[in-house]
Amino acid sequence: MTAGRSRRYRAAYAALALGLAGSLALTGCKSHSSKKSKTSSSSSSSSSSSYKSKKHRIIGGGTGAGSTTSRRRSMCRPTPGSFKFVQLSEPSHVLVKYRNKSRSSCYLYNAPMVYRGDAPSKSGSYDIAKPLGLYEGAPGFMNSHRIEVRGGATAYASIPTLAASDKGKAQNVMYLGVMMQGRAAMQGVANAVHFGRYDRHPSIGATAKVGDWYLTQFRAESATHTRPSR
After folding, report:
1. pTM here?
2. Distances from the Cα of 52 to the Cαs of 38, 39, 43, 150, in angstroms?
3. How far apart are the first and last CA of the chain?
4. Strands 186-194 and 209-210
5. How far apart are CA 44 and CA 190, in angstroms?
6. Over the Cα atoms of the chain, what is R_g?
7. CB pairs under 8 A, 24+ apart, for 71-74?
8. Where is this region: Disordered (predicted)?
9. HEC profile for 104-119?
10. How buried is residue 179: exposed, middle or buried, by Cβ count under 10 Å (0-12/13-18/19+)?
11. Contact call for residues 224 and 147 (beta carbons, < 8 A)
């Protein structure tokens, strides 16, 4: 073999080796790029799924909190005209009526706080230390009676006046308020219920006791064993 042919063969082998090396390098780059793309896509999908999951949990938690808040009910807060006495033909009891003038529901606890207008204190029109007694007993921490009064709805409480001392004399004005939860004490102040000369005045004596609030007149009268005649 001549020296010229030998040089040509070496040059050809060198070119072939260079071509093979370039092809392998290109194949490796494509493979690495493909794996990286798949990894990036998988990571992006996982991140998106995680974001959606977290977003769902946040929305769900917010909705739950809102539902809890919407279920909360505050104590009923009477306004002038919230209380009145129901006209009854049967003299065995006096019936108190409360109307929730708000559009939202509220809670009434135990019984109304009732004060006679003929026994005022020196500092006001009624003696806050002398409310009527409670027919169904004083409430306690664990035995508090409660009713929910929807917006615009009414509640009733009966005051038996069977004995002469329970009946007493007719009143021209009475004061009524709402009771605190678990305590025989008034929340806020009492509202005056005045009577014109054409109204039938309630007759409530100092020894009379008031029953708990109920959503119907029938339940209130049944709780105190008093029913109007038919």
Report:
1. 0.66
2. 21, 20, 14, 39
3. 140
4. unpaired
5. 66
6. 42
7. 73/104, 73/105, 73/106, 73/107, 73/148, 74/104, 74/106, 74/107
8. 31-78
9. CCEEEECCCEEEECCC
10. buried
11. no
What is the separation of C-alpha 105 from the centre of its chain, rounded to a whole number of angstroms?
Answer: 9
Q: What is the pLDDT of residues 165-222, one digit of tens each?
A: 999 888 888 999 999 988 899 999 899 998 877 777 888 999 999 999 999 999 999 9
Question: How many angstroms separate the CA atoms of 2 and 48, rounded?
Answer: 69
Distances (CA, A) of 171 to 17, 158, 175, 199, 200: 120, 17, 11, 11, 10
DSSP, residue by residue, 52-88: HHHHHHHHHHHHHHHHHHHH--EEP---TTSEEEEP-
pLDDT tens by residue, 31-82:
444 544 444 444 444 444 444 443 333 333 333 344 333 445 699 999 889 9
Contacts of 156 (CB under 8 A, 6+ apart): 86, 95, 96, 97, 98, 213, 214, 215, 216, 217, 219, 220, 221
Amino acid at 11: A
Cα(130)–Cα(127) distance, rounded to whole angstroms?
A: 5
Strand residue runs (E) in the chain: 74-75, 83-86, 93-99, 106-109, 113-116, 133-134, 146-149, 154-160, 173-179, 186-194, 209-210
Tokens (6 digits) for 67: 């539902």
